[in-house]
Amino acid sequence: MNNQDLLVNLIGGNIPHVGGVVTFDQKTKEETVVKFASHDGRLHKDIFLAQRLAEKIEKKLPGNLVINAGVHIDGISKEQIDDSFVMTDKIAQKILAWVQEETSSFKAPKYTTHLKRDASGKLI
């Protein structure tokens, strides 16, 4: 059984890491982008992959989305950068196909109703 929320780790290359995070709240339709500084103080560029992936899938998902992006390739070429965008588009297609296949096994959470609070708000 699966939850409707999706966590994607878009990592790879010579040194997988946490370069940036994109979140999407399905209820509010709000996207948040966090860019981490790299070892030399510049912002990680792999956030562009996370944003591209989010743009292609976020509104087609049944739940919330978190994408962690961290792809580092030593001496990356322009051609490799261009290829990374094509690969990201292919990953988006695969994610959407997987979500469509798994929709029937998504499980809705059941909330406990027997918990009560006293007058101060403390759980009893």
Automatic annotation (TrEMBL):
Q: Which residues form the Prenylated flavin chaperone LpdD-like domain?
A: 3-99
Q: Which InterPro entries match?
A: LpdD_chaperone-like
- Pfam families per record: PAC_bac
Please give the name of this protein. Answer: Prenylated flavin chaperone LpdD-like domain-containing protein
- According to its UniProt entry, this protein's organism is Lactobacillus paragasseri
